[in-house]
Write a structure and sequence with these properties.
alpha/beta; Immunoglobulin-like; TIM Barrel; nine-stranded mixed beta sheet; eight-stranded parallel β-barrel; 11 helices; 23 strands; globular; binds alpha-L-arabinofuranose
Length: 504
């Protein structure tokens, strides 16, 4: 059995773990909103039609922020459609997903739902088919105290107090040719800068996210970030990154190493931020909002799911309803390790998405809600990863992959918050178990407080409506600490979290 050795020192902190890294995403897409979080006829529905069983799972997932209402949807969205009496709200064609949007859920309902979910709303502004004026109107309506037309309209619609939304995305994936209002980087950067300046005249403490690349493989990746930031660096707090992973042509080894791609993506965007920061001769630091990431079987969407046809505009169709396996959950766990390893750069992130659409939570109309495999590493990491992330120096056997060359079979990160610490580990090897020794320097006399592992004899096992708990976390009984060294064996294709108490 091969071994790996990891050294962690409390004297080498990467940065504080921003709780907003455990965000998620609700888009008006498929059954994420309608028949997902919202189903008025469901036995658990609250007075506004939101499913309490789904809310309980969202709380258990430990989601801190929720990005809304898109995604591609936002680039054709008129926010005014979603306010006021429901019976007067217009029905529209959603061009992004070729669906019918009834607008029965809008801003007020989403804020109500967030309060119950215990999460913070992160709103996206339409900068595809709209511009500064509509953005100003939306922020005035959402946040400002009464005394002006739109804030008073909010009060008339039942919310005297502003909603206090602090994070706003300046459009969505504006680098993508599929996006309504797609434009080049300089054009978008100027629009983002103008919009940000206008919004901050209205409310100076907003935190604004400029669109970065919708993927590291985009032909404009790199120059897009540089050109956008050259226009808007002084005006925004974040630049976004989006990444979705899937096995391509059965290449599971590369898929299991997806976090190597995420590592490089983050480091390249960080380098570009530093480049523009040097050009601007400024001390201001822009951070990364990794506000869409997940496993997504995108080729299935392109070949099976995509809706077309002049007379075919379904309401809440079943779209992007990927069923996740053990392998997918291990990849999601490793992507969380990547985000934490870059805690100095990534200060917000959103698992895309939350319910039914490439989601950790699934529902059936009138029926149950259940956890997909990917639910578990997210929920456990959100619960245990507190305080600061610490660098873990990993010496491990390597795996040859087609996409990334040789990659270490094991990856890890450690977090520490006073007396509580946690070690997160992944074994990407498909056939070999690996025993890891983690030297915990500066942890006093650490002891194991809990363990949780995703591993299974069948890496393709999944949770379904008929077998909702086929895959659940199990303890990793091998974990023990002696003389400040944690020893733990990681089965093939597995993700493990070890909670520790530390005394120094
Ligand atoms: O999350 C699904 C879609 O992926 C989003 O709408 C879009 O932003 C991205 O391309």
């Amino acid at each position: 059995m091969p071994n790996a050795r990891i050294t962690v020192s409390t004297s080498a902190p990467i940065g504080a773990v921003d709780r907003r890294v455990f965000g998620s995403f609700v888009e008006h897409l498929g059954r994420c909103v309608y028949d997902g979080i919202h189903e008025p006829g469901h036995p658990t529905a609250d007075e506004q039609g939101f499913r309490e069983d789904v809310l309980a799972l969202v709380r258990e997932l430990g989601v801190t922020t929720v990005r809304y209402p898109g995604g591609n949807f936002v680039s054709g969205y008129r926010w005014e459609d979603g306010i006021g009496p429901k019976e007067q709200r217009p029905v529209r064609r959603d061009l992004a997903w070729h669906s019918t949007e009834t607008n029965q859920v809008g801003l007020h309902e989403f804020v109500h739902w967030n309060a119950k979910a215990g999460s913070e709303p992160m709103l996206a502004i339409n900068l595809g088919t709209r511009a500064e004026l509509e953005a100003l109107d939306l922020v005035e309506y959402t946040n400002l105290p009464t005394g002006s037309a739109l804030a008073d309209r909010r009060a008339a619609n039942g919310a005297e107090q502003g909603f206090g939304v602090r994070m706003w995305c300046l459009g969505n994936e504006m680098d993508g040719p599929w996006q309504l209002g797609h434009r080049d980087a300089v054009d978008y950067g100027k629009l983002a800068s103008r919009t940000a300046k206008a919004l901050k005249q209205l409310q100076p403490d907003l935190q604004l996210v400029a669109c970065g690349s919708s993927g590291r493989k985009m032909p404009t990746f790199g120059s897009w970030e540089r050109e956008v930031l050259e226009q808007a660096y002084d005006d925004v707090e974040f630049i976004s990154a989006h990444a979705y992973y899937e096995p391509v042509d059965g290449d599971v080894d590369s898929f299991l190493a997806s976090a190597v791609d995420m590592d490089r993506f983050i480091e390249e965007v960080a380098a570009t931020i530093e480049h523009v920061r040097a050009e601007k001769r400024t001390d201001k630091q822009v951070f990364i909002s990794f506000d869409e990431w997940n496993v997504w079987y995108q080729r299935r969407y392109e070949t099976v799911d995509r809706i077309s046809g002049d007379d075919n505009w379904p309401r809440a169709p079943r779209l992007l309803e990927d069923v996740y396996t053990v392998t997918d959950a291990v990849v999601v766990g490793s992507l969380l390790i990547s985000l934490l390893k870059h805690a100095d750069r990534v200060k917000a992130a959103s698992l895309a998405q939350l319910v039914n659409v490439i989601a950790p939570i699934m529902t059936e109309p009138g029926g149950p809600a259940w956890r997909q495999t990917i639910f578990h590493p997210f929920a456990i990491t959100s619960r245990l990863a507190r305080g600061s992330a610490l660098r873990a120096d990993v010496a491990a056997p390597s795996i040859a992959t087609e996409r990334f060359g040789d990659v270490p079979a094991v990856d890890a990160v450690v977090t520490r918050d006073g007396e509580r610490a946690a070690v997160f580990l992944v074994n990407r090897h498909r056939t070999e178990a690996i025993t890891v020794e983690v030297a915990l320097q500066g942890f006093g006399s650490p002891a194991v407080s809990e363990t949780a592992m995703i591993a299974d004899d069948d890496p393709d096992a999944a949770n379904t409506v008929d077998d909702q708990d086929r895959v659940t976390p199990i303890p990793n009984e091998s974990a023990s600490v002696a003389d400040g060294v944690l020893t733990v064996t990681l089965p093939p294709v597995s993700w493990t979290a070890v909670g520790l108490t530390a005394t120094d």
